[in-house]
Task: inverse folding
Protein backbone atom coordinates (compact mmCIF):
# COMPACT_ATOMS: atom_id res chain seq x y z
CA UNK A 1 0.00 0.00 0.00
CA UNK A 2 1.08 3.59 -0.62
CA UNK A 3 0.46 4.69 2.97
CA UNK A 4 2.89 3.60 5.66
CA UNK A 5 0.25 3.63 8.37
CA UNK A 6 -3.20 2.61 7.10
CA UNK A 7 -6.18 3.75 9.16
CA UNK A 8 -7.72 0.94 11.21
CA UNK A 9 -11.52 0.84 11.07
CA UNK A 10 -13.36 0.35 14.35
CA UNK A 11 -14.97 -3.12 14.22
CA UNK A 12 -17.70 -1.93 16.63
CA UNK A 13 -18.78 0.95 14.38
CA UNK A 14 -19.15 3.18 17.45
CA UNK A 15 -18.77 6.47 15.57
CA UNK A 16 -19.34 5.96 11.86
CA UNK A 17 -19.87 9.70 11.11
CA UNK A 18 -16.62 10.52 12.92
CA UNK A 19 -14.79 7.75 11.12
CA UNK A 20 -16.10 9.04 7.79
CA UNK A 21 -14.73 12.48 8.65
CA UNK A 22 -11.33 11.03 9.55
CA UNK A 23 -11.20 9.08 6.30
CA UNK A 24 -12.11 12.17 4.26
CA UNK A 25 -9.43 14.16 6.05
CA UNK A 26 -6.89 11.49 5.06
CA UNK A 27 -7.74 11.78 1.36
CA UNK A 28 -10.02 10.72 -1.45
CA UNK A 29 -8.47 7.23 -1.57
CA UNK A 30 -7.25 5.94 1.77
CA UNK A 31 -5.37 2.80 2.79
CA UNK A 32 -7.23 1.12 5.64
CA UNK A 33 -7.21 -2.10 7.60
CA UNK A 34 -10.30 -4.12 8.47
CA UNK A 35 -10.55 -6.37 11.55
CA UNK A 36 -7.72 -8.90 11.51
CA UNK A 37 -5.51 -6.33 9.78
CA UNK A 38 -7.01 -7.12 6.37
CA UNK A 39 -5.63 -4.46 3.98
CA UNK A 40 -7.97 -2.54 1.71
CA UNK A 41 -8.56 0.84 0.12
CA UNK A 42 -11.44 3.12 1.14
CA UNK A 43 -12.88 5.61 -1.34
CA UNK A 44 -14.25 8.76 0.31
CA UNK A 45 -15.00 10.91 -2.75
CA UNK A 46 -18.50 10.41 -4.15
CA UNK A 47 -17.56 10.76 -7.81
CA UNK A 48 -14.70 8.28 -7.50
CA UNK A 49 -16.80 5.65 -5.75
CA UNK A 50 -19.72 6.16 -8.14
CA UNK A 51 -17.51 5.56 -11.16
CA UNK A 52 -15.63 2.71 -9.54
CA UNK A 53 -18.90 0.85 -8.81
CA UNK A 54 -19.62 0.91 -12.55
CA UNK A 55 -16.06 0.15 -13.73
CA UNK A 56 -15.46 -3.18 -15.49
CA UNK A 57 -11.90 -3.10 -14.15
CA UNK A 58 -13.28 -3.74 -10.68
CA UNK A 59 -14.50 -7.22 -9.78
CA UNK A 60 -16.65 -8.66 -6.98
CA UNK A 61 -15.16 -12.17 -7.27
CA UNK A 62 -12.47 -12.82 -4.62
CA UNK A 63 -11.64 -16.27 -5.98
CA UNK A 64 -10.58 -14.83 -9.31
CA UNK A 65 -9.33 -11.37 -8.48
CA UNK A 66 -8.22 -10.94 -4.85
CA UNK A 67 -4.51 -11.52 -4.41
CA UNK A 68 -5.04 -12.54 -0.76
CA UNK A 69 -7.90 -14.99 -1.19
CA UNK A 70 -5.83 -17.98 -0.08
CA UNK A 71 -4.66 -16.05 2.96
CA UNK A 72 -8.29 -15.36 3.87
CA UNK A 73 -8.99 -19.09 3.78
CA UNK A 74 -6.06 -19.96 6.04
CA UNK A 75 -5.89 -17.18 8.65
CA UNK A 76 -8.18 -17.60 11.70
CA UNK A 77 -8.31 -13.85 12.33
CA UNK A 78 -9.64 -13.31 8.80
CA UNK A 79 -12.45 -15.85 9.08
CA UNK A 80 -15.09 -13.22 9.81
CA UNK A 81 -14.85 -11.82 6.29
CA UNK A 82 -15.64 -15.21 4.74
CA UNK A 83 -19.23 -14.73 5.87
CA UNK A 84 -19.30 -11.82 3.43
CA UNK A 85 -17.05 -12.79 0.54
CA UNK A 86 -17.09 -16.58 0.87
CA UNK A 87 -20.69 -17.37 -0.18
CA UNK A 88 -21.19 -18.07 -3.87
CA UNK A 89 -24.00 -15.71 -4.76
CA UNK A 90 -24.57 -12.62 -6.89
CA UNK A 91 -22.89 -10.38 -4.28
CA UNK A 92 -19.54 -12.10 -4.85
CA UNK A 93 -19.58 -12.82 -8.57
CA UNK A 94 -18.60 -10.94 -11.69
CA UNK A 95 -19.67 -10.80 -15.31
CA UNK A 96 -21.53 -13.82 -16.66
CA UNK A 97 -21.74 -15.60 -13.30
CA UNK A 98 -23.32 -12.56 -11.73
CA UNK A 99 -25.99 -12.34 -14.45
CA UNK A 100 -26.70 -16.08 -14.13
CA UNK A 101 -27.22 -15.88 -10.37
CA UNK A 102 -29.25 -12.66 -10.45
CA UNK A 103 -31.70 -13.79 -13.14
CA UNK A 104 -33.79 -16.23 -11.02
CA UNK A 105 -34.59 -13.42 -8.57
CA UNK A 106 -35.50 -10.63 -10.97
CA UNK A 107 -39.09 -11.70 -11.55
CA UNK A 108 -39.78 -11.64 -7.80
CA UNK A 109 -38.72 -8.02 -7.34
CA UNK A 110 -40.50 -6.33 -10.25
CA UNK A 111 -42.40 -3.12 -9.48
CA UNK A 112 -45.74 -4.81 -10.15
CA UNK A 113 -44.95 -7.78 -7.87
CA UNK A 114 -43.79 -5.49 -5.07
CA UNK A 115 -46.85 -3.26 -5.40
CA UNK A 116 -49.06 -6.32 -4.99
CA UNK A 117 -47.55 -6.75 -1.52
CA UNK A 118 -48.80 -3.37 -0.27
CA UNK A 119 -52.05 -4.61 1.35
CA UNK A 120 -50.17 -7.38 3.11
CA UNK A 121 -47.54 -4.95 4.42
CA UNK A 122 -50.26 -2.54 5.60
CA UNK A 123 -51.89 -5.37 7.55
CA UNK A 124 -48.61 -6.47 9.14
CA UNK A 125 -47.80 -2.94 10.31
CA UNK A 126 -51.32 -2.45 11.64
CA UNK A 127 -51.07 -5.71 13.56
CA UNK A 128 -47.74 -4.74 15.10
CA UNK A 129 -48.91 -1.28 16.19
CA UNK A 130 -52.41 -2.24 17.38
CA UNK A 131 -51.31 -3.46 20.85
CA UNK A 132 -49.50 -0.17 21.45
CA UNK A 133 -52.67 1.86 20.90
CA UNK A 134 -54.18 0.36 24.08
CA UNK A 135 -51.31 1.40 26.32
CA UNK A 136 -51.99 4.12 28.92
CA UNK A 137 -50.85 7.71 28.41
CA UNK A 138 -47.14 8.20 28.80
CA UNK A 139 -46.23 4.62 27.93
CA UNK A 140 -42.94 3.91 26.21
CA UNK A 141 -42.02 1.32 23.60
CA UNK A 142 -38.88 0.24 21.79
CA UNK A 143 -40.00 0.74 18.19
CA UNK A 144 -36.99 -1.11 16.86
CA UNK A 145 -38.04 -4.22 18.75
CA UNK A 146 -41.80 -3.97 18.16
CA UNK A 147 -41.86 -2.59 14.60
CA UNK A 148 -38.60 -1.97 12.73
CA UNK A 149 -37.34 -5.53 13.29
CA UNK A 150 -40.47 -7.73 13.07
CA UNK A 151 -41.95 -6.01 10.00
CA UNK A 152 -39.21 -6.82 7.45
CA UNK A 153 -38.66 -10.17 9.16
CA UNK A 154 -42.30 -11.11 8.59
CA UNK A 155 -42.36 -9.81 5.00
CA UNK A 156 -39.20 -11.59 3.85
CA UNK A 157 -40.13 -14.78 5.72
CA UNK A 158 -43.46 -14.88 3.94
CA UNK A 159 -41.75 -14.34 0.58
CA UNK A 160 -39.37 -17.22 1.27
CA UNK A 161 -41.94 -19.45 2.92
CA UNK A 162 -39.89 -19.71 6.12
CA UNK A 163 -41.94 -21.29 8.95
CA UNK A 164 -42.16 -19.29 12.19
CA UNK A 165 -40.12 -21.82 14.15
CA UNK A 166 -37.17 -21.50 11.73
CA UNK A 167 -37.03 -17.71 11.60
CA UNK A 168 -35.09 -17.01 14.83
CA UNK A 169 -32.23 -19.29 13.84
CA UNK A 170 -32.02 -17.87 10.32
CA UNK A 171 -32.22 -14.29 11.58
CA UNK A 172 -29.61 -15.07 14.21
CA UNK A 173 -27.26 -16.30 11.49
CA UNK A 174 -27.67 -13.04 9.57
CA UNK A 175 -26.94 -11.04 12.74
CA UNK A 176 -23.80 -13.09 13.35
CA UNK A 177 -22.54 -12.34 9.85
CA UNK A 178 -23.19 -8.63 10.39
CA UNK A 179 -21.25 -8.64 13.68
CA UNK A 180 -17.70 -7.60 12.83
CA UNK A 181 -16.54 -7.86 16.45
CA UNK A 182 -16.70 -11.68 16.52
CA UNK A 183 -13.81 -13.73 17.88
CA UNK A 184 -12.00 -16.21 15.63
CA UNK A 185 -13.98 -19.11 17.11
CA UNK A 186 -17.29 -17.28 16.78
CA UNK A 187 -16.51 -16.49 13.15
CA UNK A 188 -15.72 -20.17 12.50
CA UNK A 189 -19.05 -21.18 14.06
CA UNK A 190 -20.86 -18.67 11.85
CA UNK A 191 -19.27 -20.08 8.69
CA UNK A 192 -20.34 -23.59 9.73
CA UNK A 193 -23.88 -22.38 10.46
CA UNK A 194 -24.28 -21.02 6.93
CA UNK A 195 -24.34 -24.59 5.66
CA UNK A 196 -26.34 -26.23 8.43
CA UNK A 197 -29.07 -23.60 8.93
CA UNK A 198 -29.77 -22.77 5.28
CA UNK A 199 -29.42 -26.36 4.10
CA UNK A 200 -31.94 -27.42 6.73
CA UNK A 201 -34.43 -24.90 5.35
CA UNK A 202 -33.84 -26.20 1.80
CA UNK A 203 -34.46 -29.79 2.94
CA UNK A 204 -37.68 -28.70 4.63
CA UNK A 205 -38.94 -26.86 1.54
CA UNK A 206 -38.16 -29.85 -0.66
CA UNK A 207 -40.50 -31.87 1.50
CA UNK A 208 -43.07 -29.08 1.86
CA UNK A 209 -42.86 -26.89 -1.27
CA UNK A 210 -45.07 -23.85 -1.62
CA UNK A 211 -45.71 -20.69 -3.59
CA UNK A 212 -42.59 -18.98 -2.29
CA UNK A 213 -39.13 -17.90 -3.36
CA UNK A 214 -37.28 -20.78 -1.68
CA UNK A 215 -39.34 -23.32 -3.60
CA UNK A 216 -38.81 -21.36 -6.83
CA UNK A 217 -35.03 -21.35 -6.35
CA UNK A 218 -35.01 -25.06 -5.57
CA UNK A 219 -36.88 -25.64 -8.83
CA UNK A 220 -34.25 -23.63 -10.72
CA UNK A 221 -31.49 -25.69 -9.10
CA UNK A 222 -33.19 -28.96 -10.03
CA UNK A 223 -33.92 -27.98 -13.62
CA UNK A 224 -31.92 -29.45 -16.48
CA UNK A 225 -30.01 -26.29 -17.32
CA UNK A 226 -28.16 -26.40 -14.00
CA UNK A 227 -28.29 -22.68 -13.41
CA UNK A 228 -27.61 -23.05 -9.68
CA UNK A 229 -25.16 -25.41 -7.99
CA UNK A 230 -26.07 -26.66 -4.48
CA UNK A 231 -23.72 -24.08 -2.95
CA UNK A 232 -25.13 -21.28 -5.10
CA UNK A 233 -28.67 -22.24 -4.14
CA UNK A 234 -27.80 -22.14 -0.44
CA UNK A 235 -25.86 -18.88 -0.66
CA UNK A 236 -28.45 -17.12 -2.84
CA UNK A 237 -31.14 -17.85 -0.26
CA UNK A 238 -28.90 -16.59 2.54
CA UNK A 239 -28.02 -13.36 0.72
CA UNK A 240 -31.55 -12.49 -0.38
CA UNK A 241 -33.15 -13.34 2.95
CA UNK A 242 -30.55 -11.43 4.95
CA UNK A 243 -30.50 -8.38 2.70
CA UNK A 244 -34.30 -8.42 2.64
CA UNK A 245 -34.73 -7.79 6.33
CA UNK A 246 -31.52 -6.65 8.09
CA UNK A 247 -31.01 -3.52 6.00
CA UNK A 248 -34.70 -2.57 6.18
CA UNK A 249 -34.60 -2.83 9.98
CA UNK A 250 -31.93 -0.14 10.02
CA UNK A 251 -33.70 2.00 7.41
CA UNK A 252 -36.89 2.15 9.51
CA UNK A 253 -35.07 2.69 12.81
CA UNK A 254 -32.75 5.36 11.38
CA UNK A 255 -35.66 7.17 9.74
CA UNK A 256 -37.66 7.24 12.98
CA UNK A 257 -34.68 8.50 14.97
CA UNK A 258 -33.84 11.25 12.48
CA UNK A 259 -37.43 12.45 12.15
CA UNK A 260 -38.00 12.46 15.91
CA UNK A 261 -34.85 14.50 16.44
CA UNK A 262 -35.63 16.88 13.54
CA UNK A 263 -39.21 17.86 14.24
CA UNK A 264 -39.24 20.74 11.76
CA UNK A 265 -38.61 18.23 8.98
CA UNK A 266 -41.25 15.93 10.47
CA UNK A 267 -43.86 18.69 10.53
CA UNK A 268 -43.13 19.59 6.90
CA UNK A 269 -43.37 15.93 5.91
CA UNK A 270 -46.71 15.35 7.63
CA UNK A 271 -48.10 18.62 6.25
CA UNK A 272 -47.20 17.58 2.70
CA UNK A 273 -44.51 20.21 2.29
CA UNK A 274 -41.92 17.58 1.40
CA UNK A 275 -42.33 14.09 -0.06
CA UNK A 276 -41.64 10.73 1.55
CA UNK A 277 -39.29 9.82 -1.29
CA UNK A 278 -36.98 12.76 -0.54
CA UNK A 279 -37.07 12.16 3.20
CA UNK A 280 -36.22 8.45 2.90
CA UNK A 281 -33.53 9.26 0.34
CA UNK A 282 -31.95 11.71 2.77
CA UNK A 283 -32.09 9.08 5.54
CA UNK A 284 -30.27 6.64 3.26
CA UNK A 285 -27.75 9.27 2.25
CA UNK A 286 -26.94 10.34 5.78
CA UNK A 287 -27.31 6.95 7.49
CA UNK A 288 -27.13 4.18 4.89
CA UNK A 289 -28.11 0.80 6.31
CA UNK A 290 -24.78 -0.55 5.07
CA UNK A 291 -21.98 1.88 5.91
CA UNK A 292 -19.19 -0.01 4.15
CA UNK A 293 -19.52 -3.16 2.07
CA UNK A 294 -16.73 -5.75 1.63
CA UNK A 295 -15.26 -6.12 -0.96
CA UNK A 296 -14.36 -5.23 -4.53
CA UNK A 297 -11.03 -6.01 -6.24
CA UNK A 298 -8.90 -4.19 -8.78
CA UNK A 299 -8.41 -6.35 -11.88
CA UNK A 300 -5.56 -4.11 -13.02
CA UNK A 301 -3.58 -1.23 -11.59
CA UNK A 302 -5.86 1.78 -11.10
CA UNK A 303 -5.00 5.37 -10.18
CA UNK A 304 -7.55 7.55 -8.41
CA UNK A 305 -6.79 10.92 -6.87
CA UNK A 306 -3.08 10.36 -7.32
CA UNK A 307 -3.18 7.04 -5.43
CA UNK A 308 -2.39 3.80 -7.26
CA UNK A 309 -4.48 0.79 -6.30
CA UNK A 310 -2.45 -2.26 -7.43
CA UNK A 311 -4.10 -5.12 -9.29
CA UNK A 312 -5.44 -7.73 -6.86
CA UNK A 313 -6.03 -5.21 -4.07
CA UNK A 314 -9.23 -5.16 -2.04
CA UNK A 315 -11.46 -2.08 -2.20
CA UNK A 316 -13.99 -1.31 0.52
CA UNK A 317 -17.20 0.21 -0.84
CA UNK A 318 -17.30 3.05 1.67
CA UNK A 319 -20.89 4.18 1.10
CA UNK A 320 -21.31 6.23 4.28
CA UNK A 321 -18.19 8.28 3.62
CA UNK A 322 -19.01 8.98 -0.04
CA UNK A 323 -22.60 9.90 0.86
CA UNK A 324 -21.20 12.67 3.10
CA UNK A 325 -18.79 14.08 0.52
CA UNK A 326 -19.02 17.90 0.65
CA UNK A 327 -17.88 18.05 -2.98
CA UNK A 328 -21.17 16.37 -3.84
CA UNK A 329 -23.59 17.54 -1.15
CA UNK A 330 -22.31 20.98 -0.22
CA UNK A 331 -21.06 22.55 2.98
CA UNK A 332 -23.52 20.72 5.28
CA UNK A 333 -23.25 17.03 4.30
CA UNK A 334 -23.51 15.89 7.94
CA UNK A 335 -26.91 17.55 8.44
CA UNK A 336 -30.30 15.93 7.90
CA UNK A 337 -31.74 18.20 5.21
CA UNK A 338 -34.08 16.48 2.72
CA UNK A 339 -34.54 19.74 0.79
CA UNK A 340 -30.82 20.18 0.11
CA UNK A 341 -29.91 21.64 -3.32
CA UNK A 342 -28.23 18.44 -4.50
CA UNK A 343 -30.93 15.81 -4.73
CA UNK A 344 -30.29 13.12 -2.08
CA UNK A 345 -31.96 10.50 -4.27
CA UNK A 346 -28.63 9.96 -6.06
CA UNK A 347 -27.14 8.41 -2.90
CA UNK A 348 -25.17 5.17 -3.18
CA UNK A 349 -26.95 3.17 -0.44
CA UNK A 350 -28.63 0.80 -2.90
CA UNK A 351 -25.60 0.30 -5.12
CA UNK A 352 -25.33 1.00 -8.83
CA UNK A 353 -25.33 -0.72 -12.18
CA UNK A 354 -25.36 -4.50 -12.35
CA UNK A 355 -25.11 -4.77 -8.57
CA UNK A 356 -27.92 -2.36 -7.65
CA UNK A 357 -30.20 -3.70 -4.93
CA UNK A 358 -33.14 -5.71 -6.26
CA UNK A 359 -35.05 -5.15 -3.03
CA UNK A 360 -34.99 -1.35 -3.15
CA UNK A 361 -38.72 -0.87 -3.94
CA UNK A 362 -39.72 -3.35 -1.23
CA UNK A 363 -37.53 -1.70 1.43
CA UNK A 364 -38.88 1.77 0.62
CA UNK A 365 -42.48 0.53 0.66
CA UNK A 366 -42.03 -1.11 4.05
CA UNK A 367 -40.35 1.96 5.51
CA UNK A 368 -42.93 4.44 4.23
CA UNK A 369 -45.82 2.24 5.36
CA UNK A 370 -44.35 1.81 8.84
CA UNK A 371 -43.61 5.52 9.28
CA UNK A 372 -46.99 6.68 8.00
CA UNK A 373 -48.84 4.43 10.42
CA UNK A 374 -46.62 5.31 13.39
CA UNK A 375 -47.33 9.03 12.99
CA UNK A 376 -51.02 8.35 12.27
CA UNK A 377 -51.53 6.36 15.46
CA UNK A 378 -49.16 8.42 17.61
CA UNK A 379 -49.09 12.02 16.29
CA UNK A 380 -47.43 13.27 19.48
CA UNK A 381 -44.74 10.57 19.69
CA UNK A 382 -41.41 11.64 21.15
CA UNK A 383 -38.11 9.94 21.80
CA UNK A 384 -37.89 8.66 25.34
CA UNK A 385 -35.21 10.57 27.14
CA UNK A 386 -32.53 8.03 27.81
CA UNK A 387 -28.94 7.93 26.55
CA UNK A 388 -28.53 7.85 22.79
CA UNK A 389 -29.22 4.38 21.39
CA UNK A 390 -26.18 2.20 20.96
CA UNK A 391 -24.89 1.11 17.57
CA UNK A 392 -25.10 -2.46 16.37
CA UNK A 393 -21.66 -4.12 16.74
CA UNK A 394 -20.51 -3.67 13.17
CA UNK A 395 -18.64 -1.29 10.91
CA UNK A 396 -20.74 -2.67 8.05
CA UNK A 397 -24.32 -2.53 9.38
CA UNK A 398 -25.40 0.97 10.39
CA UNK A 399 -28.27 1.31 12.83
CA UNK A 400 -29.30 1.64 16.48
CA UNK A 401 -29.72 -1.28 18.86
CA UNK A 402 -32.83 0.25 20.44
CA UNK A 403 -35.29 3.06 19.76
CA UNK A 404 -37.25 3.86 22.92
CA UNK A 405 -40.11 6.28 22.41
CA UNK A 406 -42.88 7.86 24.47
CA UNK A 407 -45.99 7.17 22.44
CA UNK A 408 -48.26 9.86 23.89
CA UNK A 409 -48.07 12.60 26.48
CA UNK A 410 -47.82 11.46 30.10
CA UNK A 411 -50.56 12.72 32.43
CA UNK A 412 -50.00 16.28 33.64
CA UNK A 413 -48.82 15.95 37.24
CA UNK A 414 -51.17 17.51 39.76
CA UNK A 415 -48.44 19.55 41.37
CA UNK A 416 -47.70 21.37 38.13
CA UNK A 417 -50.84 23.46 38.72
CA UNK A 418 -49.38 25.57 41.48
CA UNK A 419 -49.66 23.47 44.62
CA UNK A 420 -46.74 23.76 47.04
CA UNK A 421 -43.80 21.56 46.13
CA UNK A 422 -41.04 21.03 48.70
CA UNK A 423 -37.60 19.79 47.71
CA UNK A 424 -36.85 18.24 51.11
CA UNK A 425 -39.13 15.28 51.65
CA UNK A 426 -40.78 15.82 48.28
CA UNK A 427 -42.80 12.88 47.03
CA UNK A 428 -40.52 10.92 44.67
CA UNK A 429 -43.40 9.93 42.43
CA UNK A 430 -44.42 13.54 41.80
CA UNK A 431 -40.85 14.42 40.83
CA UNK A 432 -40.72 11.52 38.39
CA UNK A 433 -44.03 12.61 36.89
CA UNK A 434 -42.81 16.16 36.54
CA UNK A 435 -39.62 15.02 34.86
CA UNK A 436 -41.51 12.82 32.40
CA UNK A 437 -43.93 15.59 31.54
CA UNK A 438 -41.30 18.28 30.99
CA UNK A 439 -39.06 16.02 28.96
CA UNK A 440 -41.95 14.92 26.78
CA UNK A 441 -43.20 18.44 26.25
CA UNK A 442 -39.80 19.81 25.29
CA UNK A 443 -38.05 16.81 23.72
CA UNK A 444 -35.12 17.33 26.07
CA UNK A 445 -33.60 19.62 23.48
CA UNK A 446 -35.22 22.99 24.13
CA UNK A 447 -33.21 25.79 25.75
CA UNK A 448 -33.29 25.88 29.52
CA UNK A 449 -35.09 29.20 29.58
CA UNK A 450 -38.08 27.92 27.64
CA UNK A 451 -38.95 25.00 29.90
CA UNK A 452 -38.06 26.71 33.16
CA UNK A 453 -39.92 29.89 32.27
CA UNK A 454 -42.99 28.01 31.06
CA UNK A 455 -43.24 25.77 34.13
CA UNK A 456 -42.57 28.78 36.35
CA UNK A 457 -45.56 30.61 34.88
CA UNK A 458 -47.78 27.52 34.99
CA UNK A 459 -47.08 26.94 38.68
CA UNK A 460 -46.90 30.60 39.76
CA UNK A 461 -43.48 29.97 41.29
CA UNK A 462 -40.36 32.03 41.01
CA UNK A 463 -37.90 31.18 38.28
CA UNK A 464 -35.26 30.16 40.83
CA UNK A 465 -37.63 27.83 42.72
CA UNK A 466 -38.77 26.25 39.46
CA UNK A 467 -35.17 25.74 38.39
CA UNK A 468 -34.39 23.96 41.68
CA UNK A 469 -37.45 21.74 41.35
CA UNK A 470 -36.67 20.72 37.78
CA UNK A 471 -33.04 20.09 38.71
CA UNK A 472 -34.17 17.89 41.60
CA UNK A 473 -36.44 16.03 39.19
CA UNK A 474 -33.43 15.22 37.04
CA UNK A 475 -34.46 17.29 34.01
CA UNK A 476 -31.33 17.89 31.84
CA UNK A 477 -31.48 21.68 31.66
CA UNK A 478 -29.26 23.72 29.41
CA UNK A 479 -28.51 27.44 29.52
CA UNK A 480 -28.75 28.08 25.79
CA UNK A 481 -31.02 31.00 24.92
CA UNK A 482 -34.08 32.18 26.84
CA UNK A 483 -32.86 32.67 30.40
CA UNK A 484 -29.56 31.77 31.94
CA UNK A 485 -29.11 29.95 35.23
CA UNK A 486 -29.55 33.16 37.24
CA UNK A 487 -32.89 33.84 35.60
CA UNK A 488 -31.55 36.86 33.73
CA UNK A 489 -32.11 37.61 30.09
CA UNK A 490 -29.52 35.90 27.88
Result:
Amino acid sequence: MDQQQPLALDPFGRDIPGECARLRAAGDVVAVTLPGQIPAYAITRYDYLHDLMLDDRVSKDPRRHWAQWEQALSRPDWRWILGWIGPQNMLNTYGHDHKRLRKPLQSTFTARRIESLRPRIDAIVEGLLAPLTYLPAGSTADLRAVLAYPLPMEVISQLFGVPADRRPELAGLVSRIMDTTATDDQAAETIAMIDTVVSSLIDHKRKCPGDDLTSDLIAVHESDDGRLTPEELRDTILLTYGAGFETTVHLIANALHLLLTHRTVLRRLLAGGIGWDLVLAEVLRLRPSIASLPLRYAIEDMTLGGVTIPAGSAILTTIAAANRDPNRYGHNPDEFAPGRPRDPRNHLAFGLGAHHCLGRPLALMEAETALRQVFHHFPDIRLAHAPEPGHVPSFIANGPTTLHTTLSAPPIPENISGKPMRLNGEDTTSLEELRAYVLYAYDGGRPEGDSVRTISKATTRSYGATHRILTAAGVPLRSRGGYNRRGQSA
